[in-house]
Amino acid sequence: MGITIDMSEELLSPDPAPTSAGRRGLNRRVLLATLGLGAGAAVVGTAAPASAATTWSNPTLGRITAGYKSPSYPTHLGTDVANSQGTAIWAASSGTVVGVRTNSYPGDTRTGLLPGRTGNGVLIEHAGGYRTYYGHLHSVNVSVGQSVTAGQRIAGMGTTGNSTGNHLHFEVHLNQVTTNPYTFLQGRGITLGSTAPAAGGWPTLKQGSTGARVTVVQYLLTSRGYSTVADGDFGAATTASAKRFQSAKGLAADGIVGPVSWPELVQDVGSGSSGDKAKAAQTGLNIHGAGLLVDGDFGGVSVTAAKRFQSAQGLVADGLIGPITWAALV
Ligand SMILES: [Zn+2]
Fold first, then answer.
1. Distance of CA 18 from the midpoint of ligand 1 (Å)
2. Which of 108, 140, 185, 325 is most open to solvent, judged by the fewest CB atoms within 10 Å of its CB?
3. Which helix (H) or strand (E) holds 240?
4. CA of 166 relative to ligand 1 center, distance in Å
5. Nearest to 112 by CA among 93, 131, 133, 132
6. Number of structural domains in the chain
7. Does residue 26 sit in the same domain as residue 164?
8. DSSP state letter for 164
């Protein structure tokens, strides 16, 4: 599979342009997530007024072709999202445009808005010490000093500068230090580049449901302290466990495990995880043909299966089953 790289942070041999898989039709739906800064502070370790709220938006739609400081590209300070030329780029949050460069062209190696970056770009300053950078743009719709809101169109995707295919090079800075844009947005309910919200795709399971997804629910309920026999049969006992779990979480105790309950029910599973949550993840991977032994020991074989699944789904293949991977699994 071809990947798109930009060589603004290091020199690499040219890569092919994005494959057709990256040229999805443009969906103008903007995914917004509003988050109280109390929760935001827990993620990024910054202080902010309790009354304030910051909204973040997906900056574009497409296929992730290079991650932040990935093992194969350790000096890469952003995440690359590929799509066709002109694909809308939106401000990731409200703020003020503090930098614009528009005079670049494909193959231009001159330094851009920031050291080491090339091509047309936009730099936006947000509240709380955040800045976002959008690189390799084809066109720019904003000017320095302009106020923008989350989800406002600011540019069109391109391949200006030292880049080998149309993509957005997206960076998030906190107090002048870059952070991983994918996980940053993930913590705010946004899947970078994807139309699928983090909580999307959850199945609704209830009394009478059967199958491996029910088994996943049963293992997760047990892991949460509501011991349930993992027999794949959503009967009265599972309904009772689900109601107790929901009640403890302050949810409507209807015993139906759907989009509201799933995000509360799942737990992160990664290398070294064990017990019923690991059994749940192994069962989920087996729904997709992993063929794992459901032993509750999430070791190397399980991690490899998780990475393979994530890669096939277009997710970040880190082997860690968090909410986004869970939603895809079940
Ligand atoms: Zn990049």
1. 13
2. 108
3. helix 236-248
4. 11
5. 133
6. 2
7. yes
8. S
The answer to whether 163 and 119 have CB atoms below 8 angstroms apart is yes
- Residue 255 sits in a domain whose CATH number is 1.10.101.10
The answer to whether residue 106 is domain-embedded is yes
**Residue 157 CA, ligand 1 centroid: distance in Å:** 13
Q: Is residue 170 part of a domain?
A: yes
Q: Cβ(52)–Cβ(139) under 8 Å?
A: no
For range 261-285, the mean pLDDT: 96
The owner of tokens 């003020």 is 96
Task: Tell me, in angstroms, the distance from the centre of ligand 1 to residue 285's CA.
Answer: 31
Q: pLDDT tens across 179-203, in order?
A: 999 989 888 777 888 865 444 468 8
Closest to 277 (Cα-Cα) out of 190, 217, 197, 205 = 217
The answer as to whether 288 is a domain residue is yes
Structural tokens at position 139: 């066109």
26 C-alpha to ligand 1 centroid (Å): 21
Boundary (domain end) residue, out of 171, 186, 201: 186
The pTM assigned to this predicted structure is 0.51
Q: Quote the domain boundaries for residue 24.
A: 20-186
The number of CA neighbours under 13 Å toward the Cβ of 328 is 24
Note whether 168 and 216 are same-domain residues: no
Residue 13 in domain: no
**What is the tens place of the pLDDT at every residue in 283-318?**
999 998 999 999 999 999 999 999 888 777 766 778
DSSP 99: E
Q: Same domain, yes or no, for 104 and 37?
A: yes
Dihedral angle of Cα 272, 41, 67, 324, to the nearest 10 degrees: 60
Domain with residue 179: its CATH number is 2.70.70.10
Does residue 137 share a domain with residue 34?
yes
Tokens standing for residue 180: 């991983």
Q: Are 246 and 255 in contact (CB under 8 A)?
A: yes
